Amino acid sequence: MGLKPVRVAQLNNYIGRVLKTDPILGNVSVIGEVSNLKFHSSGHVYFSLKDEDSRVNCFLAAGNLQRITCPLEEGMEIIASGYISVYERGGYYSLNIRDIEVNGEGQLAVQFEKLKAKLEKEGLFDRYAKKELPFFPEKIAVVTSETGAAVRDIIRTIKNKNNYVDILVYPVLVQGPQAAQDIAKAIDDINFSHKDVNVIITGRGGGSMEELWAFNEEIVARSIFASEIPVISAVGHETDFTIADFVADFRAATPTAAAEAAVPDIKELNDEIEYYRDSLKEDLLRFIEMKAAILESLNPQAFARSIASRIDYEQMNADRIIESMTDSIQERLIRGSERIGMLKELIEASNPKSILKRGYSVITDKDGNIISSTKNLKKGSQISIETSDGGAKAEVTEILSGGK
């Protein structure tokens, strides 16, 4: 026969007492990354600690939060110390935290975000402040360790692409307490003492956050920003990002990529020059052919043929014009002759002589005035009668009114 059944609350309560009395779970420290961070209005803090494989719920009481010196932030790695307890009502366990210590890279991540926010606010990351890389630099300075693989990769890549570029290797520390100051001093010195340098490449190969930390220091960021010479950052691997990457005029994913971006490929340039040379040659040949045709047209014999052809054309044109003018004048003469005939007939019809020939006569008084009305006549008046073939003198003996 089995044990007597217990209630759920009793089971959870029992598990809680067991956990509290366990020598390990009653005082345990856990390393993990802060996730799902929530600050409750009560002052308590709820979050999870996670690693690559799992996660655990955490609870930080408001009273314990006041003793924590470092501010909690999402993504930071911490060492949380406390005990495992069961929330009886919910039936799940959590790590009740007494103390927190920021672990290695977690602390660096916090410093990284703080400096990033500060410099971004000051405008060190602004796009307008970025300088253009020269198309064909004559001299490149490489600020890195003289013994690392990065410098060898950079030199080899540049020489393979473009052997006309001079390379100045400026050896510096890239790791350790003095590395940031060394890198910043090198960038400043190149700007001051090597005015013939056109591009600066600074960086190193991959590593942990601590190993790359020199390129996250403020002194390096400000030297890059103040540099009058364009700076390419080339730190770590493609997934690594540093403050130097954000400030630099160009961020390369790797040292090799930085060398690729710094110089043009001389083979590609030669191919392009060859293409333009062929194009210019073709254009020049077409130009010569055009000028030859113009010279041919200026040849005396060809010019004479052209003039003769032009004269023939103009002669034909003149003949057409003369013929057209002759036809026009002839037509006008005919129309004028016809009009003159009509006017002549009108004039003949209006000639008094012609009218008299039709049986009419003209009567004038002794002064030669034409009598057109009987009102101008008196008995005894002397009048003259003119006909088409002569005339007569007469005296008025009687005046008759019209209609009688």
What does this molecule look like?
- The protein is an alpha/beta fold and 404 residues long.
- The protein has helices spanning 8-21, 62-65, 104-122, 149-161, 179-193, 218-226, 243-247, 255-262, 266-297, 300-350, 352-357; strands at 28-39, 45-50, 55-60, 77-87, 92-102, 139-144, 166-171, 199-204, 231-235, 250-251, 362-365, 382-387, 390-395.
- It has a five-stranded mixed beta barrel with strand order 1-2-3-5-4.
- The model has no long low-confidence stretch (mean pLDDT 84).
What are the key terms here?
13 strands, alpha/beta, 22% strand, 44% helix, 404 residues, single chain, five-stranded mixed barrel, five-stranded parallel beta sheet, 11 helices
Give a short summary of the structure.
The chain has 404 residues and is an alpha/beta fold.
Q: Main β-sheet, in a few words?
A: 5 strands, mixed, barrel
* Average predicted confidence as pLDDT: 84
Rg over CA atoms, rounded to whole Å, is: 60 Å
Q: Give the terminus-to-terminus CA distance.
A: 178 Å
What is the N-to-C order of secondary-structure elements (H for helix, E for strand)?
HEEEHEEHEHEHEHEHEHHHHEEE
Structural class call reads alpha/beta
Instruction: Give the helix level as a range of percent.
Output: 40-55%
How many helical stretches? 11
Unreliable runs, pLDDT <50, ≥5 residues?
A: none
Record the strand order, biggest sheet. Answer: 1-2-3-5-4
What's the total number of strands? Answer: 13
- Portion of residues in beta strands equals 15-25%
What shape does the CA trace take?
elongated
